[in-house]
Amino acid sequence: MSLRAPTLLLTLLCLSSAISAAEFKDKDGKTLPPIPELVKLSGNADHGKQVYSTICFICHQINGAGIDFGPNLSEVGSRLTKDLLYQSVLEPSAVIAPGFDTVTLKLEDSMAMGIVASENDQEVVLKAMGGAKTTYKKADIVSRTKGTNSMMPVGQQAAMTTQDLVDLIEYLSSLKKK
Ligand code: HEC
User: Fold this and answer.
1) Going by CA atoms, what residue is nearest to atom 7 of ligand 1?
2) How far apart are CA 39 and CA 81, in angstroms?
3) Which atom in ligand 1 lies closest to the alpha carbon of residue 69?
4) Is residue 48 lining ligand 1, measured as CB closer than 6 Å?
């Protein structure tokens, strides 16, 4: 027997355990501590604001700045505790913010996917990534389905160091109702 088969088996075993343990790796390839440990770390909110401005503003608004696609985060610190903020970033599909489901419309000869921005008896307006809105006549919609996956991408922690992530969550949790 060649050495190949056992090596392959070992690789597969490692892969499957990584998936089942829901491990998250940061930018340096380091495994993040579990959320109950992360919430105990303290961060620098000013630096967290910079992290936010490089990767999150393309889909969220805070105090009028950024793109209007996902929920407005101006007062997210009053709405979500730190553990839920971590979960939102690490596992976006675990909880979908109310009204922000991924909706797919099947039309006569095309498909459309986005978040419902508004709707009335005749029309539904979908918001696409980037914030562009398109209006569809309900009469033209063949079927409409709600997905279980968030439109917020997974794996964003891989663009940050662990400290960047801790700083980011510190910043978001400081955004409270005035
Ligand atoms: C490609 C677009 C996109 C990007 C980039 C993105 N988000 Fe989101 N985000 C969404 C959408 C859509 C939702 C609503 C669905 C959901 O709850 O997962 C959301 C939800 C959230 C929520 C939950 C809000 C609530 O009111 O419950 C938080 C917190 C959040 N995002 C933070 C972030 C942070 C921090 C970043 C940057 C690391 C980020 N997002 C990057 C699209 C995005």
Assistant:
1) 152
2) 9
3) 12
4) no
At 113-164, the pLDDT tens digits run: 999 999 999 999 999 999 999 999 999 999 999 999 999 999 999 999 999 9
Between CA 1 and CA 113 the distance in angstroms is 50
Rg (CA), the chain: 20
Contact at 8 Å (CB) between 78 and 88?
Answer: no
Other residues' Cβ atoms within 10 Å of the Cβ of residue 21: 10
Both tokens of 39, joined, read 């919430």
Q: Determine if ligand 1 sits within 6 Å of the CB of residue 88.
A: yes
Cα separation values, 148 from 94, 103, 125, Å: 9, 9, 20
Which protein residue's CA is at the shortest distance from atom 12 of ligand 1? 70
